[in-house]
Amino acid sequence: MKKVLLFVYDSFAEFEISILITCLNGSNYELVTCSPYSISKTITSAGKLKIMPDTTVNDVNSDDYSALIIPGGNPYHLLEDAGVTNMIRSFFDSNKLIGAICGGPALLGAAGVLNHVKYTASLTQNDTQYLPVMNWNNKKEEHLVTDQNVLTATGSNYIIFAEEVLRQLKILPADEKSPLQYFKEPSMS
């Protein structure tokens, strides 16, 4: 079975990836959670959801995964974490799919990835703690940007983010216009 790595850290925004991970369930992909902390440390999301990670960044081999997903949140405390940046860079250098949403692209910036790709993020130059790692020249004011093996989205665009990740993984057909309509419009089902 193929695997997708979900990077989780204290303050990650679980709602930004909840539809994606729901859709991965039942596919031919196994979801594996990864943390920058000890394997025994519980991760607490922005909504106070508690998660026990499956592995740590230091134990990840990008060859074992088809994709890396990085949710937003407040990753500032991880910008200088060599384990995190090395893991991200390994996925990028191996041409593996990387999906980052909202504030997650800051970790791509810390790993030097944003020097090589166009991207979007919910961060602006007013988020001064992220200024040293963001390549603002490559930022696009768009909801979703795909460049090379990197897919980025702003936080409120989590449905189109999920759709595009699922397309890139070939779980959804590339030409299907609105495959996650169920999550977009209320119905009685």
TrEMBL record:
GO CC list: cytoplasm
Top-level taxon of origin: Bacteria
Matches recorded under Pfam families: DJ-1_PfpI (PF01965)
Record domain DJ-1/PfpI: where: 2-167
Name this polypeptide is given: DJ-1/PfpI domain-containing protein
Species annotation: Fictibacillus arsenicus
Organism ancestry: Bacteria, Bacillati, Bacillota, Bacilli, Bacillales
